[in-house]
């Protein structure tokens, strides 16, 4: 028996074939090209799944025990509906779970990509043998998947764990959700870049005589990686931004520890690849200032790498079938 995981992203669609041990045997990739509309995206999802099924020698109707799909939210995992992901224009109120089930005649499970990645790390990666853990992805945005007492926390509409939109600084930057000072607006890659641009604009308008390496970077191509590189080179402006980000992350981690009392917190996402340079002082802050009795938390980096989305999608099948 095999399991298929589908990682639906704004840029790429990836499908992977997994054996019963959770080993990735084969994967297929296609560009999402979301601007072509929902029908075209759904067609590419089906094509990718058919491609990985074709890898099985002499497949039978009983070869696949389920398909898991990790998708950007918002979505409803109970109804299998993709609601309105910002990076998938046109995918509005799409019953994706039912569409794929009708095509392949196997059980299909849908959840948001952060929840799927959390399950992947819990079943196959750094979260094994834990009952209570958080997976936090720090990338373009900030998302999380929460495992509580051995179960994925979903909430009433399946949207629990939207930690990127907890407010950590009411006077902070405007978030895409309309609030000010959300965790995501302050500490994600997008937030870091936006704060950098604002500081650079003030830096120039105030006629600063000192020079910042970031002034040499084209504003349209500026990334958080540029900011970290400049800070590692002792650039004063970049260091100021990094220090702010460390504080924002520390406050966010304190809140999460106090809310969920996890045994382990696992970091994923592109921004987290800055490693100790970004995370060490934030973790130390959280360990010093979270509630007594909750501070013995293990912090670690995700281990599934670029295939985390695929493992996570496949883990949806294993998790749901274990629940029965």
UniProtKB/TrEMBL annotation:
<dbReference type="InterPro" id="IPR049874">
    <property type="entry name" value="ROK_cs"/>
</dbReference>
<dbReference type="Pfam" id="PF00480">
    <property type="entry name" value="ROK"/>
</dbReference>
<dbReference type="InterPro" id="IPR000600">
    <property type="entry name" value="ROK"/>
</dbReference>
<protein>
    <submittedName>
        <fullName>ROK family protein</fullName>
    </submittedName>
</protein>
<dbReference type="InterPro" id="IPR043129">
    <property type="entry name" value="ATPase_NBD"/>
</dbReference>
<comment type="similarity">
    <text>Belongs to the ROK (NagC/XylR) family.</text>
</comment>
């Amino acid at each position: 028996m095999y399991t298929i995981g589908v990682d639906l992203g704004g840029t790429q669609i990836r499908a992977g074939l997994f054996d019963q041990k959770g080993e990735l045997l084969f994967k297929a990739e296609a560009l999402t090209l979301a601007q072509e509309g929902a029908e075209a995206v759904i067609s590419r999802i089906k094509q990718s799944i058919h491609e990985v099924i074709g890898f099985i020698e002499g497949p039978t109707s009983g070869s696949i025990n389920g398909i898991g799909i990790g998708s950007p939210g918002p979505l409803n995992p109970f109804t299998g509906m993709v609601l309105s992901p910002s990076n998938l224009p046109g995918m509005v109120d799409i019953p994706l779970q039912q569409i794929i089930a009708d095509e392949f005649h196997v059980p299909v499970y849908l959840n948001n990509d952060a929840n799927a990645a959390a399950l992947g790390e819990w079943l196959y990666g750094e979260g094994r043998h834990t009952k209570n853990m958080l997976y936090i992805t720090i990338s373009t945005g900030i998302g999380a998947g929460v495992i509580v007492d051995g179960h994925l926390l979903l909430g009433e509409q399946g949207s629990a764990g939207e930690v990127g939109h907890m407010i950590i600084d009411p006077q902070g930057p405007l978030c895409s959700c309309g609030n000010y000072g959300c965790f995501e607006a302050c500490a994600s890659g997008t937030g870091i870049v936006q704060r950098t641009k604002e500081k650079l604009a003030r830096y120039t308008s105030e006629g600063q005589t000192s020079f910042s390496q970031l002034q040499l970077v084209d504003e349209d191509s500026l990334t958080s990686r540029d900011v970290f590189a400049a800070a590692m080179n002792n650039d004063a402006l970049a260091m100021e931004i990094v220090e702010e980000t460390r504080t924002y992350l520390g406050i966010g981690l304190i809140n999460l520890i106090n809310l969920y009392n996890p045994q382990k917190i696992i970091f994923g996402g592109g921004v987290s690849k800055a490693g100790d340079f970004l995370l060490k002082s934030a973790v130390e802050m959280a360990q010093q200032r979270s509630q007594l009795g909750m501070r013995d938390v293990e912090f670690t980096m995700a281990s599934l790498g670029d295939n985390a989305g695929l493992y996570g999608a496949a883990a949806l099948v294993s998790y749901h079938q274990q629940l029965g």
